[in-house]
Amino acid sequence: MKVFVINCGSSSLKYQLINMVDESVLASGLIERIGMDGSILTHKPEGKDKFIVEQKMENHEVAIKLVLDALVDEKHGVVKSMDEIDAVGHRVLHGGEYFDKSVLITDETMKTIEELIDLGPLHMPANIMGIKSCQNIMPNVPQVATFDTAFHQTIPEHAYIYSIPYEYYEKYKIRKYGFHGTSHKYITERAAFMLGKNVEEVNIVSCHLGNGASLAAIKNGKCIETSMGITPLEGLTMGTRSGDIDPAVIQVLMGKEDINIDQALEILNKKSGVLGISGVSSDFRDIEKAAEEGNHRAQLALDHFTYVVRKYIGAYIGAIGGVDAVVFTAGVGENAPGMRASICKGLEFFGIEVDEEENNMRGKEKDVSKARARVRTFVIPTNEEIVIARDTLELTK
């Protein structure tokens, strides 16, 4: 069985075609600038040369058709016809309180997904466009939705409720939902394997650290707390997002800068985080280079980020009541040994001790703890696509 996994952004589309017999990736790729000038498809078929197409793509349906053409292309393709694609799995940002697991897309579930646009106005319309485009192009192929929020639906009420008048939760479902759930789910399963335990037995803190970043507290294999909230703005300091701040900062910005609420949120979402502190970049590699050259604000951004992550790890160990492992994943978590070491420095009293030599590596699944450490420190490259593909297989086979 072959599953086509799609992740639609507002102007982008990432995809993989996966052979579920052995979970091998037959092809992967990225389309950028959908609906804009300079649209480009970068298609990477397994065992063949990279294939690039530059042409105008007015919408997601045109983009998906172009991807399917590439998949069956005589020279660059990996399947003989679209008939070999058995199912499509879609990454969907928000499942609200309706979805605690992946679902087969029907008219009824689609209606519910559309009702959740208000909870994710930046991402949900693109996710929905991707689903509808595939339905139009492949009307007889089953489609599955996997939600970023689903894994976090086990968070208890006392942890997800906000301390605002309860009526706003009742009327508008304003509460913590959390994101990166597909990544945290994969990390939990791999950590259990590395620990030699069943998933239901593991207690970990999962650290998804990239331009977008979140932590999840996993107790007995289930999420009991996560750092992102009703939107991905809450929690850790990130590449361009502020993370936790005093809400009154918004009022101060609006008054001092004479801006409206949308402009204030634009600042907090796209101009803050380590970019805002450093003034250099939202890319941690650029910030590390600037810090090495003596840039104080760049060093301040790094120190602030590691401090915030360390603080959250300590809090989440307390929430769980002790852990088996702390796990690092995503762009920074997988590829920045210095950042991992800095984050863990000061957590030794929890039993977390990183071995400098073992930690000096990038992008590999590895235990980087000292042999004597009571709590293991793992690096596990995430694989959200395979989680989506597995759920799609299970629901459509």
Topology:
Elements (H helix, E strand, L loop, with lengths): L1 E7 L4 E7 L4 E9 L7 E6 L5 E4 L5 H13 L14 E6 L10 E2 L2 H9 L8 H14 L5 E5 L9 H4 L5 H7 L8 H15 L8 E6 L3 E7 L2 E5 L21 H10 L3 H10 L2 H6 L5 H9 L3 H25 L4 E5 H6 L1 H8 L11 H4 L6 E2 L8 E4 L4 H13 L1
Helix pairs in contact: 1-3, 6-15, 7-8, 10-11, 11-13
Offer a concise description of the structure.
Keywords: ATP-binding, Cytoplasm, Kinase, Magnesium, Metal-binding, Nucleotide-binding, Transferase. By secondary structure, the protein is an alpha/beta fold. Helix content is 39%, strand content 19%.
Task: Report on this structure.
The strands form two sheets. Strands 5-4-3-2-1-6-8-7 form an eight-stranded mixed beta sheet, sandwiched between helices. It has helices spanning 60-72, 107-115, 124-137, 157-160, 166-172, 181-195, 248-257, 261-270, 273-278, 284-292, 296-320, 330-335, 337-344, 356-359, 384-396; strands spanning 2-8, 13-19, 24-32, 40-45, 51-54, 87-92, 103-104, 143-147, 204-209, 213-219, 222-226, 325-329, 366-367, 376-379. It is α/β, with parallel strands linked by helices and 397 residues long. The chain is 39% helix and 19% strand. The radius of gyration is 21 Å and the shape is globular. The mean pLDDT is 94. It contains 15 helices and 14 strands. It has two domains: 2-147, 2-Layer Sandwich (Nucleotidyltransferase, domain 5); 198-379, Nucleotidyltransferase, domain 5 (2-Layer Sandwich), CATH 3.30.420.40.
Q: Can you tell me the CATH class of the largest domain? A: Alpha Beta
| End-to-end Cα distance | 8 Å
How many domains? The number is: 2
SSE pattern: EEEEEHEEHHEHHHEEEHHHHHEHHHEEH
Structural class: alpha/beta
Helix content: 25-40%
Per CATH, the architecture of the largest domain is 2-Layer Sandwich
What can be said about the biggest beta sheet?
Answer: 8 strands, mixed
